[in-house]
Amino acid sequence: MSVHIGAKPGEIAERVLLPGDPMRAKWIAETFLEDAVCYTQVRGMLGFTGTWQGQRVSVQGSGMGMPSASIYTHELINEYGVKSVIRIGSCGALAMDLNLGDVVAAIGSATDSNMNRSRFDGLIDYAPVADFGLLRSAVDIAEAQGVPIRVGPILAADAFYTDRPDLYDALALYGVLAVEMESAAIYTIAARYGAKALTILTVSDHIKRGEAMESAQREQGFGNMVKIGLNTIIA
Ligand SMILES: Nc1nc(Cl)c2ncn([C@@H]3O[C@H](CO)[C@@H](O)[C@H]3O)c2n1
Question: Which of 53, 57, 116, 202 has the fewest CB atoms lying closer than 10 Å?
Fold first, then answer.
């Protein structure tokens, strides 16, 4: 086992979906995977391995925020030989032409986190980006599933509650579609250690319009995203 994941070698598939919420990892495993087995309950951050269309896939909770997501991404790749990760989660929309329930694929991820700045002594703004092959597959698969998918840059923020909504307005002028809290770390660590990464999100809130999804809507909306994620990671 690694410091934060209680799996034995070989118990985690090379392809891993990363929801932030461990209870959503459980829901995905129980709803979509065949023969799902829980391989870790360390700190309540559940992980499961099963099969999707006959292919081994794992689903691992990452927790909220880049420090937590960094720990799980690092250990999955470096201790368990994971080759590709797809974050699936929720986001708050900034773009006015996005609506609740829309699906977004993050081509890149701006961040206010210091985690990347400190990697380069604050001298270089590293650009965390998605793996192109996973992104292309996700777009093709989403279209085949009849689910429109919006591709663009997002913001991975350290704070959920911000005092600076004016900065979000400025980012929207540069085409930033939405806000979440993990993608920049997942992209950076996957690139650093030679794995592929993608983030697919469902718009659960509209920050500018002050709208939020009802919980029932969330489950249905997330189902489309999960299927896109599963079909993409085995493609
Ligand atoms: N900053 C932020 N803002 C909004 Cl409006 C969000 N909507 C969903 N999330 C995601 O959901 C969790 C916070 O509820 C985080 O993991 C984050 O990635 C959001 N994170």
Answer: 53
